[in-house]
Amino acid sequence: MSHFSTIKTELRDRQALLGALRDLGHSPTEGSLQVRGYRGQTLEAQLAVLQPNGADIGFRLNPDTGSYELVTDLDLWN
């Protein structure tokens, strides 16, 4: 059973999203990434904020809407 949650957003501008994450003090990673969650579970995303506790925050592009969805394990999110 997956512990990942997906939160729909209206975020469509990749550069604006990257800039906002950097403004918040994060160093986002780009590419085809595996976002880590509970007990080593992973989920693919195009942007990620890697966290030391192993529970990353990812953003996955939804091709149907053109917006980025936030994906993370909400129980472990910092």
Question: How would you spell out the order of helices and strands?
Answer: EHEEEE
Helix proportion? 10-25%
| Average pLDDT for all residues | 91
Strand elements, count: 5
Which value, in Å, is the CA radius of gyration?
12 Å
Number of helices: 1
Q: Terminal Cα separation, in Å? A: 22 Å
Tell me about the biggest sheet?
A: 5 strands, antiparallel
The count of domains is: 1
Trace the largest sheet across and list its strands.
Answer: 1-5-4-3-2
Q: Segments where pLDDT lies below 50 for 5+ residues?
A: none
Provide the β-strand percentage band: 35-45%
Instruction: Provide the structure class.
Output: mainly beta
What would you call the shape? globular
Walkthrough of the structure:
The chain is mainly beta and 78 residues long. The protein has one domain. It has one helix at residues 14-23; strands at 5-7, 29-36, 42-49, 57-62, 67-72. A five-stranded antiparallel beta sheet has the order 1-5-4-3-2. A hairpin with a 4-residue loop joins strand 4 and strand 5.
Q: How do you describe this structure in short?
A:
It is built from one helix and five strands; from the N terminus they run E-H-E-E-E-E.
Q: Topology, please?
A:
Blueprint: E1 5-7, H1 14-23, E2 29-36, E3 42-49, E4 57-62, E5 67-72
Antiparallel strand pairs: 1-5, 2-3, 3-4, 4-5
